[in-house]
Amino acid sequence: MAELLQFIFSGLTVGAVYALVALGFTIIYNASDVVNFAQGEFVMLGGMATVFLAAAGLPLPLAAIAAVVVTVAVGLGLYLFAIKPARGASAVTLIIITIGASIALRGAAQIVFDKQFHRLPSFSGDDPIHILGATILPQSLWVIGGAGVILAALWWFFRVTLTGKAVLATAANRLAASLVGIDTRFVVGLSFALSAAIGAIAGILVAPITLTSYEVGTMLALKGFAAAMLGGMGNPIGAVAGGLLIGLLEAFGAGYLSSTYKDAFAFVVILLVLFVMPGGLFGARSVERV
Amino acid sequence: MPALLRRFLPVLILLALVVALPFLLKSAYQLRVATLVFTAGLTAIGLNILMGHAGQVSLGHAGFGGIGAYAVAILPTHYGIHPLAAFGLGVCAAGLLAYAVGRPILRLRGHYLAVATLGMGMLIAMVIQNQQGLTGGPDGMQVPRMELFGWRVRGAETWYWICGGFLILGAVLAVNLIDSPTGRALRAVHDSEVAARVLGIDVARAKLTAFTISAVYAATGGALLAFVNAFVTPDIAGFLHSVELVTMVVLGGLGSVVGAVVGATILVVLPQVLTVFHEYEHLAIGLIMIGVMIFMRAGVVPTLIGLVRGRSA
């Protein structure tokens, strides 16, 4: 029982990070049909920038806020200088562009920061909390709690604010949205900024647990992409469920089966799910029009 | 232009290139880089059949390359099988695997297909990475020298001609396939699966054929690369290599045989040139990829052909 609970704790912690990355994929995909493979680099930038700004003498909260601002600027730059000029290009071309952007960002991080692994200090100490025989780090609670707060804030943004509704309208039908006077280009730019912010926050929250370096983004992007697909691409609730599911699968697989094949379980399950449900777990059964 | 000439024009261009290069390249190093371009080009031509003609994306093709490469490393080392037989077995294994997993995977579309092929490639890479006893794990393993009738196949020049020969053979088979009923079926599938089905084309079968053929190309390219380097590491099957392969095809120009080789040239030669600025290597590669995709949206070769013909690209 204690063992099971322990796996659930660690699964939920990584799962929350995957969920945030998947959510970033979903937001950009909904607004612009772009699958942004540089999403993992937002996570990397958040963590690395905080580490270096804190090392430069900034207090941790300020460093974190500055890191989010920097990442949002990078996200907007990605949209303005790489995605927007390629408007109307095919999906594969856009994917190559975002992959090029992720390689360039990784290269830039290598120059601006360095190639070492870095650890942020935990936000509230390293004393594990004991629950029913299992333990959980305070930082894990920060990750899970942070993800919860972001979800709540997004829900409020999309359901209550006019801007959020404009994003939803654009996601549903871009032409119709622009016909009713929504500035769809602003909405797409906003979605890049939002995704960058979410990625950066995830990177900051998880850096005390998993360490960060210029190349942590690749694997996170793959897992996040897989999580978004598992949940059904473009479905925010699916993205979160997919992320948590992959985190739990990895924790259970590593704990009960084999830790060397930890990364494999997620992909085996994704393949099996897609074979049975080609649209993902929460995917809409879309009908192709000819 | 006569139809036959038009069909084989890409092959003739490549043939001229393979024959002419040794006169232009002086050092063994340059010859080696050209050889690397040929092995990558062969894989890209194969992937182009799947992506450019059937319109299906694969983010796991390096996995098939890894199977070919590790077959010529593992089978002779651990089981004493002749490298040539190991070569054949590896290519067959990759083809059979593609045929087996292709049917369920290719039912998926677009991004779902991308993530499924990604998962398949990751699984192959993880098996290679983790079966240390067999594959040497992350450190990689030596590939035994090929010996044919008592003659040891070695030296930069020998492998240059062997890989060049395979590239030409691959190009000939590709242009023939593209002009065959199967090729026309593939293009119909690319344009519209529904319309293709209405025409009586077995869409699932056409896609499976393209997937299997492209896997055979990838395994051949991977095995040749392993022979040339005399060493393999799991990177050859990794996700980043899969991405590189897709990028080669798109960068050079989807649907163009010469384009696939040009894309391979760019991605193989660029890092070699950019090591001069090694700090800025990745930044530069990333920016070049973005720039080419924005300004030469159809890929380098189709855009240039368009310019030469005086049309706006």
From TrEMBL, chain A:
Keyword Transport listed: yes
Record-given protein name: Branched-chain amino acid ABC transporter permease
InterPro entries documented for this protein: ABC_transp_permease, BCAA_transport_permease
UniProt GO BP: amino acid transport
Principal localisation: membrane
Localization annotation: Cell membrane
Family (UniProt): Belongs to the binding-protein-dependent transport system permease family. LivHM subfamily.
UniProtKB keywords: Amino-acid transport, Cell membrane, Membrane, Transmembrane, Transmembrane helix, Transport
GO cellular component: plasma membrane
Listed GO MF terms: transmembrane transporter activity
UniProt topology in membrane: Multi-pass membrane protein
TM annotation in the entry: 7-31, 62-82, 88-108, 129-158, 186-212, 224-252, 264-284
From TrEMBL, chain B:
InterPro entries the record matches: ABC_transp_permease, LivM-like
Keyword 4Fe-4S: no
GO function terms (MF aspect): branched-chain amino acid transmembrane transporter activity
This protein's UniProt keywords: Cell membrane, Membrane, Transmembrane, Transmembrane helix
Leader sequence residues: none
Pfam families in the record: BPD_transp_2 (PF02653)
Its membrane topology: Multi-pass membrane protein
Membrane-spanning residues: 7-25, 31-50, 57-75, 81-100, 112-129, 158-178, 208-233, 245-270, 282-308
Keyword Isomerase: no
Primary localization: membrane
Subcellular localization: Cell membrane
One cellular component (GO) term of this entry: plasma membrane
PANTHER family, per the entry: BRANCHED AMINO ACID TRANSPORT SYSTEM PERMEASE (PTHR30482:SF18), HIGH-AFFINITY BRANCHED-CHAIN AMINO ACID TRANSPORT SYSTEM PERMEASE (PTHR30482)
Name of this protein: Branched-chain amino acid ABC transporter permease
Organismal lineage: Bacteria, Pseudomonadati, Pseudomonadota, Alphaproteobacteria, Hyphomicrobiales
